[in-house]
Amino acid sequence: MTQALLHVENLEAGYQASQVLFGLAFSLGQGQVLTLLGRNGMGKSTTVKCLSGLLKPRAGRIQLAGQELAGQPAYLIGRAGIGLVPEGRQVFPSLTVRENLVATAHTRNFQPGAGREPWHLERVYDLFPRLHERARQMAGQLSGGEQQMLAVGRALMTNPRLLILDEATEGLAPLIRAEIWKCLARLKQEGMAMIIVDKNIKPLLPLADRHIIIEKGRVAWQGNSDELTAQPEVIQRYLSV
Q1: Cβ atoms 160, 194 nearer than 8 A
Q2: Which residues have C-beta within 8 Å of that of residue 194, sequence separation ≥ 6?
Q3: Residue 115 predicted with pLDDT over 60
Q4: At a CB cut-off of 8 Å and minimum separation 6, what does 237 contact?
Q5: Tens digit of pLDDT for each residue in 39-86?
Q6: 111, 124, 114: which is closest to 153 by C-alpha?
Q7: Terminal C-alpha separation, the chain
Q8: Whole-model pTM?
Q9: What span, in angstroms and rounded, lies between the C-alpha atoms of 184 and 168?
Q10: Mean pLDDT (whole number) for 119-128
Q11: Which residues pair with 146 in a beta bridge?
Q12: What is the pLDDT of residue 129?
């Protein structure tokens, strides 16, 4: 049985008088990949904000490896082992690629084990050779795809136990998207637990262990890729525009 890494229970959240999440609950095992799917405005980004400490939940529990994180500030959640690749990338434009990477580097969350190695500059450069080529270039001068690679690399430099990617390939050219998916597949092979929010369902199918569809702040459906592809009516009902 896969050991639980993340446990979310009865999560409620919103903004001022508006409530967005209504008792959301799910879990994620060590080394698993989970997707959060749903149309815009259904609560995916709000869930990500709660998990990463950017929004304080109104109720519920968020546990990472048994440690309660609900309501903790973002920097403590980062220290606990959650790494975020935010929507819109949000790199530091006036810092070089290398400076962006080393600014977040630490190994406090690294879990030693057979064949495991902490994330450092050389490993990130091996994953994304373009970042090595542009190491001295200002991040604000990179293309959107290169900035996304940098955002992933910056999160990996924190050596997270759980990597969250909000709109992982939004606005990227098809070739760059394919490169990002290839890198995420490699991370999964290395045992990285991930939560991915993305509108492109097809490349998520071979990557994800489980999918959760959020509808109006609640879990409307969950299952594996085989179950999702066997139920086209679910895709039509909850995901088609």
Answers
A1: no
A2: 32, 33, 34, 162, 163, 164, 165, 184, 187, 188
A3: no
A4: none
A5: 999 999 999 999 999 999 999 999 999 999 999 999 999 999 999 999
A6: 124
A7: 37
A8: 0.92
A9: 10
A10: 95
A11: none
A12: 95
H-helix segments, the chain: 44-52, 74-80, 97-103, 121-127, 129-133, 144-156, 174-189, 201-204, 225-229, 232-238
| Contacts within 8 Å (CB) and 24+ apart, 120-125 | 120/157, 121/157, 123/156, 124/153, 124/156, 124/157
Separation of alpha carbons 232 and 131, rounded Å: 39
The Cα-based distances of 151 to 21, 29, 206, 211 in angstroms read: 27, 24, 23, 24
Q: Could you tell me the sign of the dihedral formed by the alpha carbons of 43, 55, 81, 147, in that order? A: positive
Helix ranges, 53-168 (H): 74-80, 97-103, 121-127, 129-133, 144-156
What is the torsional sign of CA 87, 36, 83, 11? positive
In a 13 Å sphere around the CA of 216, the CA atoms on its Cβ side amount to 0
SS3 18: strand
Q: Which two tokens stand for residue 180?
A: 């990002």
For the chain, which domains are there?
4-238 (3.40.50.300)
One-letter amino acid for residue 146 of the chain: E
**Pairing of β 4-15 and β 59-64:** antiparallel
Q: Measured at the alpha carbon of residue 57, what is the angle toward residues 54 and 63, in degrees to the nearest 5?
A: 90
Residue type, 211: H
State pLDDT tens for residues 16-43. 999 999 999 999 999 999 999 999 999 9
Segment 131-185, tens digit of pLDDT: 999 999 999 999 999 999 999 999 999 999 999 999 989 888 899 999 999 999 9
Tell me what percent of the chain is helix, strand and coil, each rounded to the nearest 5.
Answer: 35, 25, 40
